């Protein structure tokens, strides 16, 4: 079972998410929070697999709540579920440790698949979010000086990873083994100085390392 906490200050939103997730046999909603502080406290108490986190909430916003949760429980996934698609909200949320960033207009079935992907260790960015990041990548076009250059093959793997593909799907797309993909991903993490696929995908978009730019 995928154990979920829903954190949103709007009761109707929480009820809607709860109603739908209860129809999924592999999901269990174990708690609800109406603000960021409650989300942090409930997460510490109940130890969910994932928190569906609203961005703007009273007492403590979703970004600070995410930062506090990830600092103590790095294994717990956070999915930002919000109405904001601008860079000023997206980047701080991802940098705080969110594994995904989706808008509230997401279809219910797509939300479920997104949660399953995140639990499986894959990244999840709403297409509108990716578009917004691309619009702003020119302002951050210079790579950090400490960045070690990626090989052509590593760039290929990174481009596929940014699309949210699994290791198996990347291997099939590039006609290599999954073991080779794992090696490339390990090298990418080391060179970009990131810890997971979501951070690598965010880095790729932010600095123009996506498929369109390599």
From TrEMBL:
Pfam families membership: GerE, Response_reg
4-aspartylphosphate PTM sites in chain numbering: 54
A single GO molecular function term of this UniProt record: DNA binding
Keyword Phosphoprotein on entry: yes
InterPro entries per UniProt: CheY-like_superfamily, NreC/VraR/RcsB-like_REC, Sig_transdc_resp-reg_receiver, Tscrpt_reg_LuxR_C, WalR-like
Keywords: DNA-binding, Phosphoprotein, Transcription, Transcription regulation
SUPFAM superfamilies named among the record's database cross-references: CheY-like
Keyword presence, Transcription regulation: yes
PROSITE patterns found in the cross-reference section: HTH_LUXR_1 (PS00622), HTH_LUXR_2 (PS50043), RESPONSE_REGULATORY (PS50110)
Protein name: LuxR family two component transcriptional regulator
Native organism: Kurthia zopfii
Domain HTH luxR-type, first and last residues per copy: 143-208
Domain Response regulatory residues, every copy: 3-119
Swiss-Prot/TrEMBL GO biological process terms: phosphorelay signal transduction system; regulation of DNA-templated transcription
CDD domains, alphabetized: LuxR_C_like (cd06170), REC_NarL-like (cd17535)
Domain of life: Bacteria
């Amino acid at each position: 079972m995928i154990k979920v906490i829903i954190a949103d200050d709007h009761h109707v939103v929480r009820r809607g998410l709860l109603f739908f997730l209860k129809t999924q046999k592999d999901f269990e909603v174990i708690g609800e929070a109406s603000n960021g502080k409650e989300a942090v406290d409930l997460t510490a108490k109940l130890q969910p697999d994932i928190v569906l986190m609203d961005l703007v909430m009273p007492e403590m916003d979703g970004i600070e709540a995410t930062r506090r949760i990830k600092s103590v429980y790095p294994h717990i996934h956070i999915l930002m579920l919000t109405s904001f698609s601008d860079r000023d909200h997206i980047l701080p949320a991802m940098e705080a440790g969110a594994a995904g960033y989706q808008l509230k207009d997401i279809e219910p079935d797509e939300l479920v698949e997104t949660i399953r992907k995140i639990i499986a260790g894959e990244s999840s960015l709403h297409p509108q979010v990716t578009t917004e990041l691309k619009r702003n990548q020119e302002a951050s076009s210079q790579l950090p000086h400490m960045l070690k250059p990626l090989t052509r093959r590593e760039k290929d793997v990174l481009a596929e990873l940014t699309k949210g593909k699994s290791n198996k799907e990347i291997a099939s797309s590039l006609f290599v083994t999954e073991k080779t993909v794992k090696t490339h991903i390990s090298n990418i993490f080391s060179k970009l100085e990131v810890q997971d696929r979501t951070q690598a995908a965010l880095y790729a978009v932010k600095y123009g390392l996506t498929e369109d730019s390599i």
